[in-house]
Amino acid sequence: xELKLGVLARLEAKPDKAEELNEFLIGGKALVxxxxxxxxxxxxxxxETHFGIFDTFADEDARQAHLNGAVPAALGQEGPRLxxxxxxxxxxxxxxxxHEGD
Length: 102
Fold this sequence. Notes:
The chain is an alpha+beta fold. 35% of the residues lie in helices and 27% in strands.
């Protein structure tokens, strides 16, 4: 299945909540595992308080299902407690993708 679309979210934790956000993101994988249209999902840490999520999808329906899914809902609930500011969310069109074995 060709990956054509993505979502990039940049997150900044409150300084005293960085480890909680770290654990929240690790736990988010279990929710994303239940989304058949989310083909890849990466949660990452850039530095002490900056984190991100990058996901890929084959079509817009799958991307919208994810954006309306469990992780964004949980982040909406926990965000005010964990985040220094609102997430920076970008939808992206993938230009080239390397799959293992390519």
